[in-house]
Amino acid sequence: MESILAQNPNNVQSTKEDLIDSVLPLLKLICLTVIGLILAYPKTQLVPKATFKLLSKLVFALFLPCLIFIHLGESITVKNFVRWWFIPVNVLISTGIGCVLGLLVAKICKPPPEYFRFTIIMTAFGNTGNLPLAIVVSVCHSPNNPFGPSCNTTGIAYVSFAQWVAVLLVYTLVYHMMEPPYEYYEVVEDGVEIQEEMITTNLSTPLLVEAEWPGMEDRETENCKTPLIARIFGNLSNLSQSSIQETDSIEEGGESGSNTNPRSPKSLRCLAEPRMVRRIRIVAEKTPIRHILQPPILATLLAFFVGMVPPIKSIVYGDDAPLSFITDSLDILAGAMVPSVMLILGGMLAEGPNESRLGMRTTVGIIVARLLVLPLFGIGVVALADKLKVLIPGDQMYTFVLLLQYTTPSAILLGAVASLRGYAVREASALLFWQHIFAVFSLAIYVIIYFKILFSYF
C-alpha cells in the first residue's frame, strides 16, 4: 500500500470531502428510487406495474447491453483482459465467503428445515450487476469525482467484466441450490410420479421476478419445479433409478428416428457408463446453461471481440472512427440505464414485503451477515490482494469495484430463480425488500469507509 500511496500523494482528501464524495452519489440514487416508489405506490399507482415490467425488459434487452458494449469495448484489450483476471475471481471468493457465512447463519438462527439452503443462497450471492453499475455511474457523474476523467468508462468496464461469472453461477450453482426441498412433494403410484404439495398462490407475479432478468419464467422446463437432484441422488433408490431410466429412455427415443443401429456410439456409451457418471450427466443436461446467452452477455462477448481486435476497434470506437455515429447513438440509449434501474427498484419496493415463513431471527441474521459482516471480509481480501501485488497499482476504481462486490444486497435475480423453481418466492420477495431498505444505511457507511481507505492508503 505504501508504494501505491507514494505514487498518488495528491489523492489524500479530508474527512469532509470524503463524506461529500461518498454520500452524494447514494443520495442521487435514493432520490431516483423514491420517485419510482411514488409512481408505483399501490393506492395512487400513477404508473401501473405492467409499465415497470416493460421498462425492465427495455433495460435488459436494450439499455444495459448498450452500456456494456460502449464502455467495456472501449476499455478492453488483450493486455487488460489479462490484467483484470482478479475481478471474476473476486466474485467467486465473495460467493465462497458468503456461503460460509450463510451456513453459519443457518446453523445459529435455525430457519425452518425447508429454508436451510435458501438461507445460504441469499447470504452468498450479491448483486454484481445493475446496482454496482448504478453506484459507479452515480459516483462518476460529477466532473470533480475523485477517480479522474476516465472514471465512468473504466468503472463500468470493471463491473461488466464480472457479470458473466455471476450469471454463470446463477444458472448452475444457484439454480440447483434453489431446487425445491423433497418435503414439498409426495410420491404416488410406487414412486413413479411426483406431485407438488405446495404450489405458489394465484397472486400476480411480483415485480422482482421481472426486475433484473425478464423472461426467466418463460424458460420453464419439465423438471424446473421438481426436486431433480433429490430424485437422482437421493436415498430413495427406486425413485432415483426410475428417474434415470425415464430420462435415458427419452434421450434414446429422441434419437431412434435418426439412428437405429443398436451398436451406435450413444448406445455403447450408455451401456458402459457407471451409475454415478450417468447421474451427473443427467443433472448436467438438465441444467439450463444455454439460457446464459442473453442480451447483456451477448453484448459482453461482442465487446470482447471488437475491443480486442485493434483493426475493428479503430473503426468502431473513437471520435474519428467511421462508425462513431453508431457508438454515439448507443451511448445515448445507455444513458437511460441507471435511472430506469432505480425507478424499477422503487417500483419493487412499493409492493412492500410479502408474508414470510423464514422467521424474523433468520431474516435479521441474513441481513447482518450480508450487509455488515461480509464487507469486512472484503476489506481483508482486497488488502491481502494488494500485499500480493494482485491489484492494479494506482487504480482506485479497480479496488473500489472489488470492494463493492462484497457490499451489495442479495441479487434481485435470486427472486426470479425462486419463481422459476417454484420455491420460497414469498420469502425471497420479503428478504430482498428488507435487504434493500437496510442497504441504504450499510452502503452509505461502507462507501464512506472505502473512500477513506482508498484515498488514504491505496
UniProtKB/TrEMBL annotation:
Q: Does the keyword Transmembrane helix apply?
A: yes
What's the main place this protein lives? membrane
Asked if Transmembrane is a keyword of the record, the answer is yes
Membrane-crossing residue ranges in chain numbering = 23-42, 54-72, 84-106, 118-136, 156-175, 292-312, 332-350, 362-385, 397-420, 432-455
Q: Which GO terms describe its biological process?
A: auxin-activated signaling pathway
Cell compartments where the protein resides: Membrane
Q: Keywords of this protein's UniProt record, alphabetized?
A: Auxin signaling pathway, Membrane, Transmembrane, Transmembrane helix
Instruction: List the InterPro entries.
Output: Mem_transp_PIN-like (IPR004776), PILS2/6 (IPR039305)
Instruction: Give the membrane topology, semicolon-separated if more than one.
Output: Multi-pass membrane protein
List the residue ranges of the region (Disordered): 244-268
Question: Superkingdom of this entry's organism?
Answer: Eukaryota
One GO cellular component assignment for this chain's record is: membrane
- Per its record, how is this protein called by name? Auxin efflux carrier family protein
Organism phylogeny? Eukaryota, Viridiplantae, Streptophyta, Embryophyta, Tracheophyta
